[in-house]
Amino acid sequence: MKVLVCGNSGSGKNTYGRALATQHDLAHLDLDSIVWEPEKIGVPREPQAVVDSLVAFISTHQKWVIEGCYGELVEAASTHCTQLVFLNPGLETC
Prior knowledge:
The chain is α/β, with parallel strands linked by helices. The chain has a single domain (2-87), classed as P-loop containing nucleotide triphosphate hydrolases (Rossmann fold, 3-Layer(aba) Sandwich), CATH 3.40.50.300. The protein has 4 helices and 4 strands. It has a 4-stranded parallel beta sheet, with helices on both faces. The longest helix is centred in the middle third of the chain and has 14 residues, at 47-60.
């Protein structure tokens, strides 16, 4: 099982992804964790480092859930997933 969860900010991607990972014993990757510099506020990592981290995660784990809203990363991961989930709770909720 390789699940890619995407959707608007505030749609519940992280909550859903973590629950799915726990329920099915999947490795979990929140794309925020590879896009931003650790321990720094609003400082993006170098683009190649982000891509390298995504590729390393996908190639290291046989079963996973990846969640986030970064279009280029979602597109890159989509070629590897077996299931795509789009969360859209509506404008008022987001």
